[in-house]
């Protein structure tokens, strides 16, 4: 998925302004941002439901707007899924089968094993979480190449969340599906996403490739000899101590940080992975209240 300089105006108000987004094939990309940041609007463009005011939106190498061939390869679980009011899961599956060439009945049965839902009951009688699960079931049965998930775990209990993530990640592993998932919850995305973008007030603050060592931030735990002090020459973003063990978050690359610390002859030194929360808090300055609200 590739978005360049996307602008969207609603009634002369810009919901998105100059947004760039790059989601490589087979990636699981987390899109985070506060309420009203523009996440759903961006996703609406990627499904082809919204027409850009300016800029370009491409999926699988082609513009999405008015492009049925590309749209047929996109599966979407919106934050509030739509079903025909009288239909059951079985009825919706029949509708999907009739309308979408790639709806796979065998897959519908296989994926269905992960759901504890009555396929004959009208969907309007389902709870919010059950409707969300039904949307997952039907969408995954479309065998999409691109999966768009707008706050997908909202309203799902922890066990079901785990099962849904398993389904999505299995799909990525087996079919190299490309996934874009929006969420308010960084902890939920931790360990799942390999790319990440922060959207705020209609602009993309920054995109991260989490598969690479965190550009420029290192977390290191170190125990120095009795009475020794931290050497000079470290740009420390955060420092915490538990007994003699110090946990440092330091700007710079791993090699340089370890080299400087080694001059103090540490008794113990280990670099540990940064959590997403730490990465965002320290890389984006740490003093930004809105971002703190977003990640904590
Ligand atoms: N159809 C619309 N008409 C007018 N304004 C809209 C419309 N859809 C969205 N907006 C505005 O665009 C901005 C972005 O909204 P959007 O729903 O994309 O945000 P979001 O990041 O998904 O928020 P949330 O996390 O609360 O779901 C908001 O200011 C919203 O009021």
UniProtKB/TrEMBL annotation:
Entry annotated with the keyword ATP-binding: yes
Transferase among keywords: no
Assigned keywords, A-Z: ATP-binding, Nucleotide-binding, Transport
Membrane-spanning ranges: none
Gene3D superfamilies documented for this protein: P-loop containing nucleotide triphosphate hydrolases (3.40.50.300)
Cited PANTHER family: ABC TRANSPORTER ATP-BINDING PROTEIN ALBC-RELATED (PTHR42939)
Protein name (record): ABC transporter ATP-binding protein
């Amino acid at each position: 998925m590739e978005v360049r300089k996307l602008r969207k105006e609603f009634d002369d108000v810009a919901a998105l302004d100059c947004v760039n987004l790059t989601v490589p094939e087979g990636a699981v990309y987390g899109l985070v941002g506060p309420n009203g940041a523009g996440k759903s609007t961006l996703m609406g463009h990627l499904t082809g439901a919204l027409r850009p005011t300016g800029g370009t939106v491409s999926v699988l190498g082609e513009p999405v707007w008015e492009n049925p061939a590309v749209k047929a390869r996109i599966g979407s679980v919106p934050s509030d899924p739509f079903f025909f009011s009288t239909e059951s899961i079985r009825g919706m599956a029949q509708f999907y089968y009739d309308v979408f060439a790639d709806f796979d009945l065998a897959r519908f049965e296989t994926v269905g094993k992960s759901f504890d839902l009555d396929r004959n009951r009208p969907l309007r009688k389902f709870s919010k979480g059950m409707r969300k699960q039904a949307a997952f079931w039907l969408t995954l049965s479309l065998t999409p190449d691109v999966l768009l998930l707008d706050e997908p775990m909202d309203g799902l209990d922890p066990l079901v969340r785990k099962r849904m993530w398993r389904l999505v990640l299995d799909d990525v592993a087996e079919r190299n599906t490309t996934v874009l998932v929006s969420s308010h919850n960084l902890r939920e995305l931790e360990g799942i996403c390999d790319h990440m973008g922060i959207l705020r007030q209609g602009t993309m603050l920054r995109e991260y490739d989490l598969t690479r060592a965190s550009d420029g931030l290192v977390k290191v735990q170190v125990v120095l000899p009795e009475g020794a002090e931290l050497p000079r020459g470290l740009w420390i973003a955060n420092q915490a101590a538990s007994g003699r063990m110090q946990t440092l978050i330091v700007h710079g690359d791993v090699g340089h940080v370890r080299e400087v610390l080694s001059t103090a002859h540490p008794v113990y030194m280990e670099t540990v992975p940064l959590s997403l929360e730490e990465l965002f808090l320290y890389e984006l300055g740490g003093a930004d209240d809105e971002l703190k609200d977003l990640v904590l």
